[in-house]
Amino acid sequence: MTKVIFGNHSALRVHRTERDRIRKFYRDILGCELTRELHDKDDFRMGDGFYIAFLYGSGGGWEADKGVTYAAEHALSEDDFLKAIFLELKADDVEEMRRKIVDFGVKVLEVPDPHLYFQAPGGQVFRLVGTNEDLSTYEGHR
Fold it and tell me: Yes or no: is domain 9-138 CATH 3.10.180.10?
């Protein structure tokens, strides 16, 4: 049977009005590197090799990504983002990162789980976990 894994690239369609907060949050709070800034897109590197792109508006994207059309006008509503997907964010010092994230002013979600779930600028929802935390209870092994 063929197996799949998540790749190291992700993209989110977001509203242009969130651009400054997205940059501040990902660069200044999470410590990501802003690797590319285009009129309609920002690319960040998280850690050693995960890349996340924020697509801010319609446009050809031909400056860097030939043939790609970005259309943020088709972004989900803020409420729909809360239902779309939870992404896992790992930190070596969970309490310090929790403090920085909450102090930044994100929307904290009430989830029956001891981890911090929050909506980051741009709308995506993250669960904050420890880098060395045993998360096997979430994997549903029989």
Answer: yes
Q: Which two tokens stand for residue 133?
A: 């935390």
Buried residues in 73-110 as b, exposed as e (16+ CB within 10 A): eebbeeeebbeeebeebbbeebeebbebbeebebeeee
Q: What is the pLDDT along the chain (142 residues), one digit of tens a residue?
A: 766 567 788 888 788 889 999 999 999 999 999 999 988 889 999 999 899 988 886 554 445 555 555 555 566 677 776 666 778 899 999 999 999 999 999 999 988 888 999 999 988 888 999 988 887 776 665 4
Question: What count of other Cβ atoms lies within 10 Å of the Cβ of residue 141?
Answer: 6
A 10 A CB-CB count for 22 gives 23
Q: What is the DSSP string of 59-84?
A: B--TTTSTT--B-GGGPPPHHHHHHH
Q: How many residues does the chain have?
A: 142
The answer to whether the beta carbons of residues 33 and 27 sit under 8 Å apart is yes
Domain locations in the chain as residue ranges: 9-138
